[in-house]
Design a protein that fits this description.
Blueprint lengths: L1 E11 L4 E5 L5 E5 L2 H21 L15 H7 L7 E12 H8 L12 H9 L4 H13 L3
Antiparallel strand pairs: 1-2, 1-4, 2-3
Amino acid sequence: MKVIYPVLFYEEKEGGYSVFVPDLQNNSTCGSNLEEAMTMAEDLIAGIVLDEMEEGNKIPKSSKIEKVTFEELEKKLEIENWDYISKFKTYISVDLTSYAEKWGKELIKKTVNIPKWINTRAETLKINFSKTLEEALLQKIYKE
């Protein structure tokens, strides 16, 4: 399952980037270069969304990038005369399944029954049953 959020980047004069995710209560992170800042944004989004899912809460909706403004963020954070080099906004896409596999908490074992022919065909195709079930459950739980 993937989530996509608009993210605001500020290139700082003293080096590095400040990063904000307005749809996730303006949570922020930073990076010493653009690549690190983007990776940190992915980690921030994954952490917040996975925590929400584990708590049984709905995943925060993603805004259209056109609706997200620097002025609104700066007003909410009460920032005046921010000394930065440049700023830009972009979407960040995060594959939650891969993050959950890497950082997810405890796994629960479930026994399921499926028709023998499906089992045979799936094994022939080397389908990962656990991953397939997890993806299907996530889609069913969080469909909009």
